[in-house]
From TrEMBL:
It is an enzyme of class 1 (oxidoreductase). Gene3D superfamilies: 3.30.1130.10. GO terms for molecular function: preQ1 synthase activity. Pathway: tRNA modification; tRNA-queuosine biosynthesis. It catalyses: 7-aminomethyl-7-carbaguanine + 2 NADP(+) = 7-cyano-7-carbaguanine + 2 NADPH + 3 H(+). Its EC number is 1.7.1.13. InterPro entries: GTP-CH-I_C/QueF, NADPH_dep_7-cyano-7-deazaG_red, QueF, QueF_type1. One of its GO terms (cellular component) is cytoplasm. This is NADPH-dependent 7-cyano-7-deazaguanine reductase. Keywords: Cytoplasm, NADP, Oxidoreductase, Queuosine biosynthesis. Its main location: cytoplasm.
Length: 158
């Protein structure tokens, strides 16, 4: 099993287990990966980010989303502390919903090289219109069970 992260990783020193500064931008954020101990088995990993925040690039007002990231690992697993720091770096990042969702999915896929990855961005209404954004990459291994992302379509509050 490989012990060194892919060449695309910014640093070989994990953020896990030590104090690190919060990244100021998504580009500055480090995404860490760790070796997958079960490369002989296909399985799904899910991360839910129910309180994602970014900034509208036009108005400067905050936008909120519930993100769900599912992937089938290859040689690497996404380390959760680095994901937390990465998504937090969007708090002052100005981008549209579509750009944030796809940017996160592509960055994670580039860093950990999963067999398959999908991200669902369930954005809370802005101007009365909710926006849901979905992106995926890779080929889903045959016979995989992929659960529903579990986020209901927006139907107002009541």
């Amino acid at each position: 099993m490989l012990k060194t992260p892919p060449k695309s990783s910014k640093s070989k020193v994990l953020q896990l287990g030590r104090a690190v500064e919060w990244p100021k931008t998504p580009e500055e954020a480090q995404i860490d990966c760790v070796p997958n101990p079960r490369t002989d088995t296909n399985y799904v990993v899910r991360f839910a980010v129910p309180e994602f925040t970014s900034i509208c690039p036009v108005t400067g007002q905050p936008d909120f989303a519930h993100l769900v990231i599912d992937y089938v690992p290859g040689k690497w697993l996404l380390e959760s502390k680095s994901l937390k720091l990465y998504v937090a770096s969007f708090r002052n990042h100005g981008a549209f919903h579509e750009d944030c969702t796809v940017m996160i999915g592509k960055r994670i896929a580039d860093e950990i090289k999963p067999k398959w990855l999908r991200i669902g961005g369930y954005w809370y209404p802005r101007g009365g219109i909710p926006i849901d954004v979905f992106w995926q990459t890779g080929k889903l291994p045959k016979g995989m069970w992929i659960p529903d992302q579990g986020v209901a379509p927006y139907r107002g509050r009541g």
